[in-house]
Specification:
With 503 residues, the chain is mainly beta. It has three helices and 37 strands.
Length: 503
């Protein structure tokens, strides 16, 4: 028998009760207006059917038909989770998170944010999932979040450097190792950036719930709030909590009980707390889930929509997520999730570490030598505009599986509005080795520049990243490379795309 699911008010009621009471109690400005989320969420077991009422009042019958999960051979992490669903009798295949956006089936947009396999050797408490899969639904053609109520939370270019989005196993600080069976799958959104330089802003109109270790009364129990010195929690009119972690600096104007507007300054991106030593914003949304538990509201698609709405990019290249294999194994690199405003991508070009290339959205590659590879994807639209992204492939040494593969995190600032002659700050940190030096190639024919980071010897060291400055003399799109080789001759390579506009 089908389960009837009508979630139109599940977070709205909470937001009204919480915000209205606290606004009066603390003498704050009027709280953010209550917002009925456009998304509807349902958890299903294979074979289970649910009737779902969407935000526009229409109803959908949804059935979970099948679940397939693929794991790697190195640390047995789930790399791809596929579900087959039936929507009003129409079949659809979805891939769970890992940079996949909602797709349309009939009168519905839907995605799958998490499946049960991630619970088997991961952290189920992040998601609050008790069944086989979580599905989210919106009316076809609907925005994912109401326009004007959500903004991109960092002031930098999309994919300016490394990211770790939902269901990505952690890799930047060496978290993925051969034989390691207890995996930290990422539940929030890690947005890499330049430590102490990138400004973090409030994504929504919000009540400030916690700043560092100070928590607003009424939010310590039965909430997802977990205070820490580098963390801020905000609560919006949907009843969603927003976690901002690893902040280098928290804005002094943030006080628990205060109501702030979307776009207001939260602080500066950093690597404080449990960052693993790489500089990034951990941005995570928590909401009540169908299980009744607090769990992550997967945010990649929401950020994608907010960034496009705010900055209007004509073209976005997507070559992520990263891959982990043993030497001698093959992977499929996939650029098909790239996007063009015109609806058409005219060309794909892959440039590989060995000097070869390919011109298809997907390409299979075999890697014989261990290392951290960064393969360049260039996409071109029908107007001749270009965008770049980079596919990271981590290749573990089959002959020495105990050796951690060196990783590397390059970043730069500013990432937007650059003109010829502007000084650009480049930072880099290598992980899993203290041998060797990083060598920068800025892609403009200038001589290589050598620097030396601390190799993540002290994760929270203020000077852990090596810093250099570079200026470009001419407008253009520059592909920057930085590399460092460890004591075993294994190299980690990273890339950045720097766009310098004309006068």
């Amino acid at each position: 028998m089908a389960t009837t699911v009508c979630l139109a008010r599940y977070s709205l009621v909470m937001s009204i009760l919480t915000l209205a009471g606290l606004g009066a109690a603390f003498g704050a400005d009027p709280p953010p207006a209550a917002i009925d989320p456009l998304v509807r969420v349902v958890d299903l077991n294979v074979g289970e059917t649910a009737n779902v009422t969407l935000s526009d009042g229409s109803t959908v019958q949804l059935k979970l038909l099948d679940l397939r999960e693929l794991r790697d051979d190195v640390c047995f992490a789930v790399r791809r989770a596929e579900v087959t669903v039936e929507v009003n009798g129409r079949r659809a295949d979805l891939v769970s998170a890992t940079y996949h956006l909602p797709q349309t089936a009939g009168n519905v947009q839907l995605d799958c944010s998490i499946t049960k396999g991630y619970n088997q050797n991961g952290s189920p408490a992040f998601w609050g999932l008790d069944k086989d899969a979580r599905l989210r639904l919106w009316p076809a053609g609907s925005p994912l979040v109401r326009p004007g109520t959500f903004t991109y939370p960092v002031k930098q270019k999309w994919f300016a450097t490394d990211t770790q989005m939902a269901n990505d196993p952690v890799y930047v600080d060496g978290g993925e190792r051969s034989g390691k069976r207890n995996i930290y799958y990422h539940s929030g959104l890690d947005i890499g950036g330049s430590e102490g330089l990138v400004e973090v802003v409030a994504a929504t109109d919000s009540l400030v719930v916690s700043v560092g270790d100070v928590v607003l009364e009424g939010h310590r129990r039965d909430t997802p709030v977990a205070p820490r010195y580098d963390v801020v929690y905000l609560l919006d009119g949907r009843g969603w909590y927003y976690r901002y972690s690893h902040l280098k600096e928290i804005d002094a104007r943030l006080v628990p009980g205060r109501v702030i507007s979307q776009g207001d300054r939260v602080g500066l991106l950093g690597k404080e707390g449990g960052s693993g030593g790489w500089s990034h914003l951990h941005f995570e949304i928590k909401s009540r889930q169908p299980s009744g538990k607090w769990g992550t509201q997967e945010g990649y698609a929401l950020l994608w929509e907010a960034y496009r709405r705010q900055y209007s990019p004509p073209l976005i290249a997507v070559a992520r997520p990263h891959h982990l294999i043993f030497s001698g194994q093959r992977v499929t690199l996939d650029g098909s999730r790239s996007w063009s405003e015109s609806g058409k991508i005219a060309g794909y070009e892959w440039r590989f570490d060995d000097g070869s290339s390919a011109n298809t959205p997907q390409v299979e590659r075999t890697y014989e030598r261990p290392g951290r590879y960064s393969e360049v994807l260039k996409v071109t639209d029908d107007a001749g505009r270009v965008a770049y992204d980079f596919a990271v492939v981590i290749v573990a040494d089959r002959e020495h599986p105990e050796r951690a593969v060196p990783s590397i995190h390059p970043n730069y600032y500013p990432t937007m509005g650059l003109r010829p002659g502007d000084p650009i700050t480049f930072k880099v940190r290598t992980f899993n080795t203290t041998a060797g030096q990083e060598t920068w190639d800025f892609g403009d024919g200038s001589p290589p520049v050598k620097v030396q980071s601390d190799g993540n010897a002290v994760k929270l060291a203020p000077d852990g990243y090596a810093v250099t400055t570079h200026r470009y003399g001419q407008p253009g799109d520059y592909i920057v490379q930085v590399a460092r080789t460890d004591e075993h001759g294994v190299t980690a390579v990273g890339h950045l795309h720097v766009h310098v506009a004309g006068e």
